[in-house]
Design goal:
The chain is of the alpha/beta class and 431 residues long. It is 44% helix and 12% strand. The chain contains 17 helices and 13 strands. The protein has a five-stranded mixed β-sheet with strand order 2-1-3-13-6. A four-stranded mixed β-sheet has the order 9-10-8-11. It has a two-stranded antiparallel ribbon with strand order 4-5. A hairpin with a 2-residue loop joins strand 4 and strand 5. InterPro entries: Bact_solute-bd_prot1, SBP, TAT_signal.
C-alpha cells in the first residue's frame, strides 16, 4: 500500500501550552472590527499552487458578497502546515479559520483550541449537509469542524504505464495485495529506469486499511489500539517486500518522495503505474501527468472491506478568534455557495451537500466524474464503523513512518518493528 502524503505530528508541547492559555483566558468578541469598521479574517489551509489559486478566487467571491469582511489567505505546504499552526495557536496568534484533517480535529478540540460551532449556529448554515459528514466533524457530540467533502483511499492507476510495460491490468474486483506487489514488480522490470510499478511507501492510513481488512481497526471506540501485533508485523513485512522486489523505489528514493508536491511525484510525472492515495488526488495527479488516470478499489477488499469514507478536510474556527460571526459566514460560504463550489469542484473532496453536488456535476472533468463515481461505489459498501483517533494519535502517524523507514533500511525486522510500534503507539495515546 502507498500514499503520497503522510500526516505530520501535532507538536504536542506547543499545543499543551496553548491549551492552558485558552482555558484560562479564552475571551470571544464576535463583533471585533478593524479601525475602518470592516472585519479582516485570516484563513489558513494547506495544498499546492492550484488549490491556492482556486481558494483565492473563492475568497474574492466571498468578499464581493460581504463587502465589510476582508479575508487574508494563508496557504502553506502540507509538510510544515501543522507545525506552523500549532505554533500560532500556542502564541495566541491562530488564524480565525483553518483547515484540519485526520485526527487533528480531536487533538485541537480536546485541547480547547476550536470553537464549539453551536455558538454560531445562527450564522453557520448546515441544513444541507449530509448527516454522516456532520458527524465526522464532531468530537464527543460537539460540532468543531465542517467537512469540506468526502474522499476514500483508492488505487490510482496510469493505464499508459501499464500498456507500455506489457503487464496486464489486475482484476480489481478480486485482486490481492500479493497480486498488487507482483504486478508492480513486473512493471518495474519491464519499464525504463526510473519508472516503477508502485509509486510510494506504505503509510499510516494504509495500515488502518490493512487492519480493517482483517476485521480489526486502528483505534477502538474507547480510544485504544484496535489491531494486533501480528497484523502490524505483516504490514511492515509487506512494506519491506515492496522495496526488495523492486515493486517500489529503493528506501532512499521513497524517503525523498515522501513530502514532495503532486507535480513532482512519480505518479505526477508519469513514472508510476499505481499509487495508493486519497481519491480527491485524482484530478491534480492527472493534470500533472498530462493523461487520464483511473481509480480502482484497494487490493484485498474481499471478503472483508478495509475501505471507509472520510472527510477530506474540515473547516474549523479558532477558539481564540474575536470575529466568530464573520468567520462563520466564511465557512458557510465555503460549503454552501454555488459559485464557490464551481471554483473548487472536488479539490477538497466530493462535496457533502447534495445540492452542491448536483450543481457541480456538469462542471466536472472526466476525472472529476470518476471521483464522484468512486465515492458513490464506496458509499454502497458495508464497511465497519470508523473512530476518530484519541488525543495523542497524531503522534502515532509519525511513529508509523519512522519505524517503517527503519524496516525498509533493514535496521529492524518486521517482527521487532511491530513490537516497538505497539509499545510506542500505546504510550502516545495514553499519555
Amino acid at each position: 500500500m502507498s500514499m503520497h502524503l503522510s500526516r505530520r505530528s501535532f507538536a504536542q508541547a506547543s499545543l499543551g501550552v496553548a491549551a492552558l492559555a485558552l482555558l484560562s483566558a479564552c475571551g470571544n468578541n464576535s463583533h471585533s472590527t478593524d479601525a475602518d469598521g470592516n472585519v479582516t479574517l485570516r484563513f489558513a489551509w494547506w495544498g499546492n499552487a492550484s488549490r491556492a489559486e482556486a481558494t483565492q478566487k473563492v475568497i474574492a467571491a466571498f468578499e464581493a458578497a460581504n463587502p465589510t469582511i476582508k479575508v487574508k489567505g494563508e496557504p502553506g505546504d502540507f509538510s510544515g502546515y501543522f507545525d506552523k499552526l500549532a505554533t500560532s495557536v500556542a502564541a495566541r496568534d491562530a488564524p480565525d479559520v483553518f483547515t484540519l484533517g485526520g485526527a487533528y480535529p480531536a487533538e485541537y478540540a480536546n485541547r480547547g483550541a476550536l470553537l464549539d460551532l453551536a455558538k454560531v449556529k445562527g450564522t453557520l448554515e448546515l441544513s444541507g449537509m449530509d448527516k454522516s459528514a456532520l458527524a465526522n466533524g464532531q468530537v464527543k457530540g460537539t460540532q468543531y469542524g465542517i467537512s469540506t467533502g468526502a474522499n476514500a483511499l483508492a488505487m490510482v492507476v496510469n493505464p499508459a504505464v501499464f500498456k507500455a510495460s506489457g503487464v496486464p491490468r489486475p482484476d480489481a474486483s478480486s485482486w490481492t495485495w500479493d497480486d498488487f506487489r507482483d504486478a508492480a514488480a513486473r512493471i518495474t522490470a519491464n519499464s525504463p529506469t526510473g519508472t516503477f510499478g508502485s509509486a510510494s511507501v506504505l503509510t499510516h492510513d494504509s495500515l488502518d486499511a490493512f487492519a480493517r481488512q482483517r476485521g480489526e481497526s486502528l483505534y477502538t471506540q474507547d480510544g485504544r489500539l484496535g489491531l494486533t501485533q501480528a497484523t502490524v508485523a505483516d504490514y511492515f513485512g509487506f512494506s519491506l517486500a515492496l522495496t526488495t522486489s523492486k515493486a517500489s523505489p529503493s528506501p532512499s528514493e521513497l524517503v525523498e518522495q515522501a513530502n514532495i508536491s503532486v507535480e513532482q511525484s512519480l505518479m505526477g510525472t508519469g513514472k508510476a503505474a499505481m499509487m495508493l492515495t486519497w481519491s480527491n488526488s485524482l484530478r491534480a495527479l492527472g493534470g500533472a501527468a498530462g493523461t487520464d488516470l483511473e481509480l480502482l478499489p484497494l487490493p484485498g477488499e474481499s471478503p472483508t472491506p478495509g475501505i471507509w469514507l472520510q472527510s477530506s478536510q474540515y473547516f474549523s474556527i479558532s477558539a481564540q478568534s474575536k470575529k466568530t460571526e464573520a468567520a462563520a459566514k466564511l465557512v458557510s460560504f465555503l460549503v454552501n455557495d454555488t459559485a464557490a463550489a464551481k471554483i473548487m469542484l472536488t479539490d477538497r473532496g466530493v462535496p457533502s451537500n447534495a445540492a452542491i453536488r448536483a450543481v457541480i456535476a456538469p462542471e466536472l472533468s472526466k476525472q472529476g466524474q470518476s471521483e464522484v463515481a468512486y465515492l458513490d461505489k464506496v458509499s454502497g459498501t458495508k464497511f465497519a464503523p470508523t473512530f476518530i483517533g484519541p488525543t495523542g494519535s497524531t503522534a502515532v502517524s509519525e511513529i508509523t513512518a519512522r519505524i517503517n523507514t527503519n524496516v525498509m533500511f533493514a535496521k529492524t525486522s518486521p517482527a521487532d518493528a511491530a513490537k516497538q510500534w505497539m509499545d510506542e503507539s500505546a504510550a502516545a495515546i495514553s499519555a
